Amino acid sequence: MAIQTKKLGQLEYLSAEGITVPHCFTTKKGGVSTGVMAGLNIAIKDGETKENVQKNLEILGNALGFEISDLVLTRQTHSDIVRVVGRNDCNGCFHRNYPECDALITN
pLDDT of 2-41, one tens digit each? Predict the structure, then answer.
């Protein structure tokens, strides 16, 4: 399976050939974050603002066709835990009740 680099304006991301659903592997290129978080930072960490993360997620959503209100996020742990999620799990980006797991799946 080959990996392609895709560009949309300043945004640059990677996509795998053969996967037919919208997906991407983000790079740092194309976001609004500055300093040590420069680029497309999509995680709230020390030194980052909520506004920058929201704008970066909106940039990504515009490229892939999703609204950030439809996101389901996780606190990733390298484990064998896979969580099935649906519409009721869309809690927005800025809560702190992220489930710990290694993957999310949906139908």
Answer: 999 999 889 999 999 999 888 889 999 999 999 888 999 9
Distance (Å, whole) CA 16 – CA 93: 25
In terms of phi and psi (left: phi > 0; alpha: psi -120 to 50; beta: otherwise), the region of 33 is beta
Residue pair 56/38 in contact (Cβ under 8 Å)? The answer is: no
Please tell me the pTM assigned to this model: 0.82
Task: Kindly state the DSSP code that residue 37 receives in the 8-state scheme.
Answer: G
Count CB-CB contacts under 10 A for residue 73: 20
89-106 per-position pLDDT tens digit:
887 777 777 778 999 898
Q: Which amino acid is at 32?
A: V
